Each structure stands twice: as C-alpha cells, then as structure tokens.
Model the fold of this input.
Amino acid sequence: MIDEKEKTGNKARSRWIGKTIAAIMTFWIGSVIILEILLSTTMVTNTVNRIAGRYIDGEISFGKVSASLLKNFPSLTLSFEDFCITYPSDRFDISEETGPQGALMFRGCGEEADTLATFSSFTASVRITPLILGQVKIPEIILAKHVVYAHSYSDGKANWNIFNTSANNADTADTTATALPAISISRIQVSENSQIVYTDGRDTV
Done:
C-alpha cells in the first residue's frame, strides 16, 4: 500500500515538475517572440540615436537597421548598413595645421564634417543579461568595407577622443557628459576589404 502511495506521489511530482518546466519555457519563448516583434526599425533607430547622443561627442548616421533576438540567442544582434561616425570639421583645425604628415593628415576631412569611420555594414551581438546589469559584453563584431581615419596630433589630441570615456571627461569641464561603460569585445571579424589611415603628429608616422 505504501509503495502505491509513493508511486502516485512520484508521478504527481513528475507531472508538477514537467508542467513547471513547460510553463517556464513557454514564458521565455513567448517573451523572446514578443521582444522580436517590438524590435521595430523605428524603435531601434530612436534608441541608437539616444544612446549615441549620450556617449558620442559627434554624429552617427546609418541606412537600413535591424535587430534580432532569435538570430544569436541569447545575444541581441544589431545590424546597420552605411554606418558613419563624424564630428564637426573645425574641431581639430589648429591641431591639423601641425605635423609632417602632409596630405594624409587631412584624409577624412570634409567641408562641414570630418569622418572618423565608415562601414558599408556593421553587425554586433550583445549579451542580454550583462547588459541588464550595466555591462556591455560583445561576443562578435562583423565589419564590411570599413574605412577608418585615425589622427593623433602633436598637441596630444586625437580625433577618436569623441567618445565620452571617464578619461576624456576628466580632461574637460563638462560634468554632465556620460562616460561609456566598460566594453568587452571577444572577436572582431572583417568580412571584406578595409582601409585604415593613421597619422601621428608627434612623429613622422
């Protein structure tokens, strides 16, 4: 009689555990599907522009954008086409007048804006759980046909210092700037031809 009761109890516990697991899986799958639907182009564009406004002392622009949780779950995958990072053309005018690099010093310069980097496509996967905790962990970044114009000037300035890091904020009087959180990148893949122009005004590089 006791054995029968134990068997009945074990079956009941097994059914309860099975229902609990099924409920949890249904909740997670449903949440992922709902989030996938909510990740519209407009929402992603507005979010990216808002974050860029906080962390980049420059401008970003991009064409088609997409976001997906299903592609590399549990990571959020963001993909941009024609991604570009620029800053005002007069920001480093005085610095650019010095240095022995000649025409290379002015690569990426335009009449209204200077270019730091352009990408025909830019894809990044971001871990969801660390992101909720305020950490940015990126398993992979894929770049296609990117061009980078990196200039370091003789006065110690550099055109890539448009990102609001804690070090950059300490050198300015702007106490309202938000510093970038620590970012961990595991892998960077260049899928197509790329070009990098680098100059150093403190040397002949």
Summary: The chain has a mean pLDDT of 79. Residues 2-38 form the longest helix (37 residues). The first strand starts at residue 59 and ends at 61. The two ends are 88 Å apart (CA to CA).
